[in-house]
Q: What sequence folds into this?
């Protein structure tokens, strides 16, 4: 996977129903690389070993939202959750 070429403050991931742990892991890896952190550095800040970080990034383990928040904080960022609806009260993916 290539490192995203966007500013750190602009990284975003649109989470959709059925999104795979691998896709989430690719995003986490890219965010970590953009932040210039190693798996060891992120693991230390989260209180886990680098092997745990590698498992999240590979998609072998699906991280809980609280783990993603800790991961982002370890990168020096903030996790922001945004919900959008259209005028008919549907979310962007069309579900009510």
A:
């Amino acid at each position: 996977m290539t490192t995203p070429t966007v500013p750190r403050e602009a990284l975003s991931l649109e989470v959709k129903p059925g999104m795979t742990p691998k896709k989430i892991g690719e995003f986490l890896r890219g965010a970590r690389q953009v932040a210039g952190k190693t798996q060891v550095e992120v693991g230390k800040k989260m209180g886990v070993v680098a092997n745990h970080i590698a498992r999240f990034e590979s998609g072998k383990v699906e991280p809980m939202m609280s783990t993603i928040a800790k991961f982002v904080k370890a990168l020096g960022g903030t996790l922001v959750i945004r919900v959008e609806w259209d005028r008919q009260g549907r979310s962007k993916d069309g579900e009510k």
Observations:
- The chain has four helices and no strands.
